[in-house]
Write a structure and sequence with these properties.
There is one protein chain. With about 70 residues, this protein is mainly α. It has one domain. The protein is about 80% helix and about 0% strand.
């Protein structure tokens, strides 16, 4: 899985959570189950963004070791 795929999925989850949060608080009376789901999706989306960057950094170290030219 590449960095861009992780960021795309995480951004979609974050946007769905934000849309649900706006929906939950739009009519003046908060809807607790929808609000909890929205905040959970927002937290998972943010965590996914950071995890994508972290896993990308780990993958860079592996690729860098494979591409080191051998000295003779």
């Amino acid at each position: 899985m590449r960095l861009e795929h992780g960021l795309l999925v995480s951004a979609l989850v974050l946007l769905v959570g934000a849309a649900l949060a706006i929906y939950a608080y739009s009519d003046g009376a908060a809807q607790p189950p929808v609000a909890v789901l929205a905040l959970t999706l927002i937290a998972l989306g943010a965590q996914g963004v950071f995890a994508s960057f972290f896993l990308s950094i780990l993958g860079l170290a592996e690729h860098a070791l494979l591409r080191v030219p051998r000295r003779r």
